[in-house]
Amino acid sequence: MFELDAATGQLRWKFDPQVQHNKAFQHMTCRGVSYHATKPGAVTADGATAPGDCPERIFVPTNDGRIFALDAQSGSPCASFGDHGQIDLKEGSEVQTFGFYEGTSPPVVTDKVLIVGGAVIDNYSDKVPSGVIRSFDIYSGRLIWAFDASNPIRTVSSP
Q: Residue range 128-148: average pLDDT?
């Protein structure tokens, strides 16, 4: 991921998520990123005041099942989001085999929520879980809800 100056073509910043490569990955390309600008007086999904870091965020999904929140001005990970700027989408899931889950598309962004899907490796193994759609607080990365269409018992909502 990088930003170029539109007028000069000079590199402004560069970020490397250190994606591990695996032959099982279906897509080793970026299908897009998502952008969020914090509005004055913004609050989190819990109603708390939005953090001051990263007023403009770029959300980057990776093929190894993570999402990064980057400061749009510097390219640095947003410390207030998840674990120092990233969340592991495999955490809390049945996915144990590297490469069986990957983020393939940019997340949907609202004023408070990030909505994320992903891809599982279908027909590769009988140990592959179903895909789950989840939402996270756009500022903290905290899981808000998860929906598993194939297993409603696993569907969760915020406490």
A: 86
